[in-house]
Amino acid sequence: MIEFYTLGTSSAVPTDSRDLSSTFLNFQGNKMLFDCGEGTQKSLMVNKLGLMNIDKVFITHWHADHFSGLLGLVQTLGMEGRDRPLFIYGPKRTEEFTKNLLELGYYNRNYDIYAENLEPGDVVEDQEYKVRAIKTDHRVPSLGYVFEEKPSKKVSRKKMEEHGLEPCEEIGRLKDGESVEIDGTVYTPDQLVSKVPGRKIVYTGDTEYSEEVIRASKNADLLVHDSTFTEELRKDGRYGHSSALQAAKVAKHADVEKLVLTHFSRRFTNNAEKLVDEAKEVFENVEAAEDGKKFEIKPHRPE
Ligand SMILES: [Zn+2]
Ligand SMILES: [Zn+2]
What we know:
Layout: E1 2-8, E2 22-27, E3 30-36, H1 40-46, E4 54-58, H2 64-67, H3 70-79, E5 86-90, H4 94-102, E6 113-117, E7 123-125, E8 129-135, E9 143-149, E10 152-155, H5 157-162, H6 171-174, E11 180-182, E12 185-187, H7 189-192, E13 193-196, E14 200-203, H8 211-217, E15 222-226, H9 231-235, H10 244-254, E16 258-262, H11 273-280, E17 286-288, E18 293-297
Parallel strand pairs: 3-4, 4-5, 5-6, 14-15, 15-16, 16-17
Antiparallel strand pairs: 1-2, 1-18, 2-3, 7-8, 8-9, 9-14, 10-13, 11-12
Bound molecules: zinc ion (2 copies).
The site of one zinc ion has 7 residues, from α2.
C-alpha cells in the first residue's frame, strides 16, 4: 500500500482549519515529504506518521508557505537524537537557501543535511521507486514531482487459472526467471508471469495550467494539483496558480485515476466543495484535500 497524506492544504496563510502546504508519502516504510510549510511537524505528530524516519524532503519552490516548517523540523530531529542524514531537494537555489536556513540561530545537530538543486527531468532514485522533477509554471523557480514505483513482475492469477494451476511453492520461483515443473509439466516464466506497472503519484505544488504537467501525469493513480481558486477569480486576473476547472482539465487530458484539489485560497477554506463542483464539470473522480486526509493506492495487478 502507498499512503499519501495531505497535511497542509491552505495557500499563502494558514486558517483555523488548514495549515500551509505539506504532504507526506509512505511507500513501504520509505517516508518522504513534498513541501514542508509551517505546522508540518505538528501535523506529522497529530497523524502519528513518525517524523524521525523521514529521509527525503522535496520542496516545490521557495515561497515561505512551502518551506517554513523546515527550520522546526530540522531542529526537532536534532533534539530527538537523529544520526542518519536528511536529504533536501528542490529547484535552483535550494542548496543556498538550505545553507542559509541552517546558519540561522544556534542548532544542536548531530546529523548531516544534504541539499541538492534539481532541474526538470532530474531523477532521485532508490531501489524500488524514483522521484522525477518536472517543470511547473509559477512566478519563481519551481518544480512538481512525480513519484513512481518501479515496475515489477508477478505471477498472474488469470494465467494460472487458464493453465488449471493452484498456488504452490514452485510457482513463486517463476518470477525470478526460473522454469518450474509441476505435476510433470514444465512451465516457463513467459507462460505465467506478467509485468506489473508501478504506481504513480504527481504533486504539482503551485502552478498555472501546464501542458508539461499533463504529459508528466499520464495515467497517474493520483494527481494532487494546485486549485487555489475558481475559474471566475482566475479570469479576474489572478495568476501563478490554477483554478479547480484547470486542475480538472489536466486530470482529464492526462487520464489520471483520481484528482485531489489542494492549496486553497482562504476564501475557500470552509467551502472547498465549491471548487470540487467546478472540477466535476469535466472530471468526475475528484476530492478536496483536507489536513490529515489519507489517500491509499493499492498495488496494481499483473496485466
Ligand atoms: Zn503556495
Ligand atoms: Zn508559491
